[in-house]
Amino acid sequence: MGPLTLALDAKNCSPSSHRSNGKIQNVQFNPKRFFASISTQEQKPFDFFRTLVDGVIAGGTAGVVVETALYPIDTIKTRLQAAQGGGKINLRGLYSGLTGNLAGVLPASAVFVGVYEPTKQKLLKLFPEKFSAVAHLTAGAIGGIAASLIRVPTEVVKQRMQTRQFASPPDAVRLIISKEGFRGLYAGYRSFLLRDLPFDAIEFCIYEQLRIGYKMAAKRDLNDPENAAIGAFAGALTGAITTPLDVIKTRLMVQGSTNQYRGVFDCVQAIVREEGPPALLKGIGPRVLWIGIGGSIFFGVLESTKRFLSQRHNTSDKSLDKKQE
Q: What percent of the chain stands above pLDDT 90?
């Protein structure tokens, strides 16, 4: 995923060698592992602060770009999932709540990637090479937990705006707190974690493992279109798998003070009883399309931004080395 400096280098590794500060690092691919893995014989020191800052910048940039580009699809998906029975879907105001959502998406994406990158690198050092997928899964879940503190209030306001319950994000926040208390901003928190923790873990694991495997097959670094294509596949597949969880999360978040559902299990039972099991797949088309395209944009922008930052760091380090000489 980023400018890694340890066993898994997702950007700068080549199949045979890796150059860093004038030294050659041998990189070995082990095709016999069940999960893809990369090992290095010589590694640069792990710079936690630099990795954290780079992740924050790259994650925030990617999050804002993808959210702005695909917000209308997300709005349609939300209205499909919130609709009960055969109600018609209103296609007006597809950008309702975008401004307020971006105010949450930027820090949430920054926090997620900022936590994910250093956590992943630490875990890759601790785990054996054959368990690199476990490191990716765990890092994705930890990043998701950290980002959920920002994501959930943002998601609640966004979906209330998308279903046209409020006129503006400030009004939404004020009225939600006045009617439901501060806890109202975290409506559906458990269902959000139920959806997002496995989603984050699975998506990033699939993406990382596919990138490693592709690099092994191609015996070279990946370009932006290839990163985008892998991101699209990982996003679409994960989006399809987690659609029922997304439906449950949406219903719990948009119910407001009506308390139609008492929790996750009650929500599932009510949906199946009143609308049938297929209702748990409502919005799967827009969701897969949205997350597939979103994965393409997000990971493409993410890798491009991290490569840019890495190149700037390399240039800065070389200049510093020359001054010291």
A: 36
